[in-house]
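name: query_chain
kind: protein
chains: 1
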Amino acid sequence: MEQVKAEGAKKDYKESDGAADSAETAKARRQTEGAPAPVIPDCCNIGVCLRTLVILNGAAVTLAIALAPEVAAIWPRLLSTALVLEPSLLLSLAGLCLVRKWTNGQHLNLQWAVALALPALVSAVVAWAFASAAFEEAALSQSLALWITTRTLSAVVIAAAMYEYFRLRARAYAPSFSEARLQALQARIRPHFLFNSLNTVLGLIRADPRLAEHTLENLADLFRVFMRDARELVPLDDEVITCKEYLAIEQLRLSNRLKVVWDIDEMPGDALLPSLLLQPLLENAVHHGIEPRMEEGLISIRITKPGDRVRVEIDNPLSATPAVRPGNQMALSNVRERLMLLYDMEAELKTGPQGDNFRLHLEFPYRKERRRRDVRRHYNPDR
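structure:
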């Protein structure tokens, strides 16, 4: 009886928790599920800030040169423009960075109101603060209101134009063509990896049927991951499990030639990243660093969280001989493109030789799940 009551209380708690989270879930709905794109771009992103500064400063310089009656008047005009433009830009970007998280998921009218009101307010305050630098004392009282109003309305128009620019840019970088291309690149793994894995299983069926069965279970898990939407974000925990399942199958094929060392004690398991981001990089390491060798080769993977970033370092041996099979030419180019689509200039992917090893260095911003999943995948090395 007590057990029944406990289960009922637990059920009531889950239902109330679900009701409380329903509004948050609706707000956090992804664009791929039908939610509209946010009005305010990610002004915390360095790439967005740099593009805004370059475009608007370039436009201000061009306008100052075009409107100056003579060459000597260009510099005073540029100075008076910069006195208002630079502080307004920096403060507006900082303010939009702070309010964007709150406005995302709100009604579009509210998003537009905040997106236009904040730059207008900042520009009005900055224009008023620097008005004395642009006017003579006698003309200050007569022209101040018009001067501030003009710059406030200009800020509204410029802000709306920049929001539209970033909206169109986001659409240009994520059209159906690019999505289809990423899906096609991801799909290239499937037949290639399937044939190698099935050949490995065929060799194990008679020698070790239990191990062959477990290998097929790993393969089934991997193909469930391969069939995901390439745009889906997954926790780093799940991506590491996918990589371990992949390497377990490769170790059966390569036997003692492949040794893997994981250093993930400091790994942020709740960090979000595109599905199948790391697995192609490890496939690249196996293909170029292990397959051409006759002796044992070590692949080391280290994942840490320095500050608010996630760092992945993969080392594999350098080989003087070419690989025994051609690569699928997808790993680095696919990863770079997906990082650009998701993180813009905030992600970094560097590769190159380091001593006797080839090192891959990957960094991207730490963005975590809103809440931990109830059901997570677990890797069983003895399976």
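note: The CA atoms of residues 31 and 37 lie 6 Å apart.
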